[in-house]
Amino acid sequence: MSITSPSVKAQTRNFIRPNKHSSVFTNSEIYTLGYARWAVEDVKKQLQTLEATLVDVRHSPHTSKPGFSRDDLSARFGDRYLHVPAFGNVNYKDGPIEIARPEQGIEKMQGLERSPILMCGCQSPRTCHRSVIAELLADRTGASITHLRSPSERAEPTLFGD
């Protein structure tokens, strides 16, 4: 099922009621990143270029990929890293996307001064819960969403130049 399908959007509306009069963060851009094909140094460059905060939306912030566990990211990025387990997908191993505690996640993002880069391990935003979270935040704030591609993905030729 595509993450932008009407049924997924309808499901996300059950999680959070949009409130166009409140602001979760002060910037108007939401970025997403699946670190499967990223090097941690390239993530650092994106944070600097976009003047953003890396928001880790994994239910369990541990991985076998070097540099991408919570402790490593926190040590490397300091106040530019925020783990929000409330945005985790409780069915991350199998099953439909179900965000753990979306309202608590939004509360944790209150006052975020930089644009967020919502990060998890999935390569494709089409099947990842970070896209659901991005939609929830965009509904709440009016921000636009950009799905970031790794440098290796940007270098790959595509059939239609996407």
Question: What does this protein structure show overall?
Answer:
The chain is α/β, with parallel strands linked by helices. The protein is 34% helix and 15% strand. It is built from six helices and five strands; from the N terminus they run αβαβαβαβαβα. It has helices at 6-15, 40-50, 70-77, 102-109, 129-141, 151-155, and strands at residues 29-34, 52-56, 81-83, 115-120, 144-147. The chain has a five-stranded parallel beta sheet, with helices on both faces. Helix 3 (70-77) links the parallel strand 2 and strand 3. Helix 1 (6-15) crosses helix 5 (129-141). It is globular, with a radius of gyration of 15 Å. Residues 1-22 have low confidence and may be disordered.
Quick synopsis:
This protein has six helices and five strands.
At the fold tier of CATH, the topology name is Protein-Tyrosine Phosphatase, Chain A
In total, how many beta strands?
5
Tally of separate helices:
6
Strands of the largest sheet, in order across it? 3-2-4-1-5
Q: Please, how many domains?
A: 1
CATH architecture designation: Alpha-Beta Complex
Strand content: 5-15%
Q: How far do the termini sit from each other? A: 21 Å
Structural classification: alpha/beta
Computed over alpha carbons, the radius of gyration is 15 Å
Average pLDDT value? 84
Main sheet: strands, sense, barrel:
5 strands, parallel
SSE ordering:
HEHEHEHEHEH
What is the CATH C level class, in words? Alpha Beta
